[in-house]
Amino acid sequence: MFELLKAGGILMVPIVACSILALAIILERFWTLRASRVAPSQTINELWRWIKKKELNGRKLKALQGSSPLGRILAGGLINAKHGREIMKESIEHEASQVIHDLERFLNPLGTVATITPLLGLLGTVIGMIKVFAEIQLAGVGNAGNLAGGISEALITTAAGLSVAIPALICHRYFIRRVDELVVGMEQEAIKLVEVVHGDREIDVEGA
């Protein structure tokens, strides 16, 4: 492996660095974007029980706020529920925007890695081919073995760049879709909470 990296030239260094960065982001996002962490079902069920039994107080609101991103959004709305429907909705939207920003953390760098690694690989190949043609200009085409070896070394960077970019791009698209699904689910729970608090909807006793 070391010989392969060495053969690819200096541009293998940023490609390997990009691969390490992409792997770290992918593992971190898989851990962070779990439904059980972002929007656990027990959070909303416990909230419905508190509301139904009129047990909601400042201490429980604080516990709800720190329980999960969903809990943070719902607590933000409940804190300002007494100021009316519109203020409650604005508070929920404000908290939701911050939560969404946190959920999308590191996705831009991952997308950047997916974009630049093929370009780095192509640049390495172009530089390698320039060296091959310079060798042809100096020594001619008599030694086909050396030329073939030089061309194969030049293509290593392209292969390495694509090997990093393809899984990075797949994971980037997956995480974008995952965030969208989580946001839709949290939005539905927030709308339900607004309707329940302002008397437009009864609490689902079975869900609670």
Automatic annotation (TrEMBL):
The chain crosses the membrane at residues 6-27, 110-134, 154-176. Keywords: Cell membrane, Membrane, Protein transport, Transmembrane, Transmembrane helix, Transport. It is found in: Cell membrane; Membrane. The keyword Transport applies. It comes from the Bacteria. Signal peptide: none annotated. Residues 68-187 form the MotA/TolQ/ExbB proton channel domain. It is a multi-pass membrane protein. PANTHER family: MOTA_TOLQ_EXBB PROTON CHANNEL DOMAIN-CONTAINING PROTEIN (PTHR30625:SF11), PROTEIN TOLQ (PTHR30625). Belongs to the exbB/tolQ family. This is MotA/TolQ/ExbB proton channel family protein.
